[in-house]
Automatic annotation (TrEMBL), chains A, B:
Keyword Ion transport assigned: no
MF annotations from Gene Ontology: DNA-binding transcription factor activity; transcription cis-regulatory region binding
Taxonomic lineage of the native organism: Bacteria, Pseudomonadati, Pseudomonadota, Alphaproteobacteria, Hyphomicrobiales
Species this protein is from: Consotaella salsifontis
Keyword Transcription regulation: yes
DNA-binding region per Swiss-Prot/TrEMBL record: 40-59
Gene3D superfamilies (UniProt xref): Tetracycline Repressor, domain 2
Signal peptide: none
Keywords: DNA-binding, Transcription, Transcription regulation
Protein name: Transcriptional regulator, TetR family
DNA sequence: TGATTATGACTGACTGGTCAGTCATAATCG
DNA sequence: CGATTATGACTGACCAGTCAGTCATAATCA
C-alpha cells in the first residue's frame, strides 16, 4: 500500500530488543526450514523486514545468530519441571505422570520441538551449542528425575531403581517422537499420545511393588 | 562363463567395484566428520586416492554419493533380527533380550552407528533417504518386534500389550544412546550397557504376569 | 616378436554460481 | 545540526560439477 520505495523507521519505532526478537523469530523459521548450512542470512533479514547488514548490527556472525537462537529457547520449560518436582505432596507415580505432561505440552506440542530438532541435527557440528544444552538443560533435568524416582524407591512406592540409575530411559520415547516427526512425519504419522501413555503404563507397571 | 570384458587399467589401478568401495569408505569418513553440507567432494576423492573427476565417473552427484552411502549400510543387521525373531522355541523374554543384543552389537557398537547418526542429522533435508530408511528398515523392524510381543502376550508370557502397540518404545533407548554419543560424548559419557540392561529390566518387569 | 594404434580410466584446471560478511552512503532521530 | 541506525551493492572465498587432455594398457599389425 504505502511503501513504494523507502519505508524508514519512524518515531517510536521498534526498540533494539524488539528488533533482536524479530530477527530471532525470522531466524527460527529459516533455520528450521533449511538447516544451518542452507539458510541464507539474507532470507532471515528479509523475513524480519530488514536488510542483511542490519542483522550484523545485532549478531556478530551467522553462527552467533544460530547459537543465540538455540540458547534463547532452551530454558523456559525446565522451570516448570523444577517447580513440579519440588512438590513432595502427591504420589511419586503422579509426579512422573505430570512430568510427562510437561514434556508433552512444553516441548513436543509446542513450537519448541522444532528448535530441539534443530539442536539434534546441527548439534554435532556446533560443540558449543551441544555443551550449552548439556550444561543448562540435560545436566539439570537428569538429576531432577533421578531424585524423584529415588524418593519413590525410598518411600516404597517404586520397586526398582533402574529408572533412578538411568533417568534417560524416562525421556527416550520423547526423543523418539521428535526424531520420528523430523524424519518420517509425512510417510507415517506416529500417535504421540498413545506412545506416551504406553510408555507411562510400562514404566509404572515395572516399578509397581508386588 | 567368465568375463567377456577386458578392462583396461592403469598401473596402480583397481577394479571398478573396489574403486566404488574405496570411494564409499572415503565418503563415509568425510561425511561423518563434516556432515553433508561441509564435506568436499575433493576431500572424498583425496582420501580415496583419486582425483575429483573420478568420483563423478561412479556417482552422478554429491547427493547420489551420499544416498548410496546410507543405503549401502542400512540393511545388513536387519537380517540378523529377522532370523532371530523367526525362532519360536525360546521364551519371548529371551527373544527380546537377544534382540537388544543384536541392536547393541550390530548398530551401537559397530561403525554402522555413525551412519545411523548421519541419517539422523541429515535425514530431514534428504526426504529420499528418510523414506528409503523408513521403507527398508523401520517398516520391517516394527512389525517384527510387534509380532514377538504379541506372541508373548498370547502365550501368557507377557501381561500387557503396550509394547505390542508401540514397539517404538523398545527401540527408543538405543536412539537415545546414539544421540547422546553424537552430542555429548566428549562432555559426559553414557554407560550404554548399563542403560540397555536397565531398559530390559524395566520392560520385563512391566510385562511379567503376576 | 616388436611397432603401432585404439581405448577408456583417470586427471585437475576451470567455470559458474552462491553467499557470508563489509562498508560507503543514506535516512532518520533528538 | 551531529549522532544513530539502516541499507544493499560489493568483494572475496568457496566449491560442485565439467571436460579436454593424458597415458597405461590391450589389441592389432607387420
Amino acid at each position: 500500500m504505502d511503501k513504494s520505495k523507502k519505508p524508514r523507521r519512524r518515531a517510536g519505532s521498534i526498540s533494539p530488543d524488539e528488533r533482536v526478537q524479530a530477527i530471532l523469530e525470522a531466524a527460527c523459521a529459516v533455520f528450521l526450514e533449511k538447516g544451518f548450512a542452507n539458510a541464507r542470512v539474507e532470507d532471515v533479514a528479509a523475513r524480519a523486514g530488514i536488510a542483511k547488514g542490519t542483522v550484523y548490527l545485532h549478531f556478530a556472525s551467522k553462527e552467533a545468530l544460530f547459537e543465540a537462537l538455540i540458547s534463547s529457547l532452551a530454558l523456559p520449560p525446565l522451570d516448570g519441571l523444577t517447580a513440579l518436582l519440588a512438590d513432595e505432596t502427591g504420589s511419586s507415580a503422579d509426579l512422573l505422570r505430570r512430568a510427562i505432561g510437561i514434556f508433552k505440552d512444553g516441548v513436543l506440542a509446542s513450537e519448541r520441538r522444532h528448535v530441539l530438532r534443530l539442536l539434534l541435527t546441527e548439534g554435532p557440528r556446533f560443540p558449543a551449542i551441544a555443551r550449552f544444552h548439556h550444561d543448562h538443560v540435560v545436566s539439570r533435568a537428569i538429576p531432577m528425575l533421578r531424585a524423584v524416582v529415588a524418593r519413590g524407591v525410598e518411600r516404597g512406592e517404586f520397586a526398582t531403581d533402574a529408572l533412578a540409575r538411568f533417568p534417560h530411559l524416562f525421556v527416550s520415547p520423547m526423543l523418539l517422537a521428535l526424531v520420528w516427526e523430523a524424519l518420517f512425519s509425512d510417510i507415517e504419522t506416529l500417535d504421540v499420545d498413545g506412545l506416551m501413555n504406553a510408555h507411562l503404563e510400562l514404566i509404572l507397571r515395572a516399578m509397581e511393588p508386588r
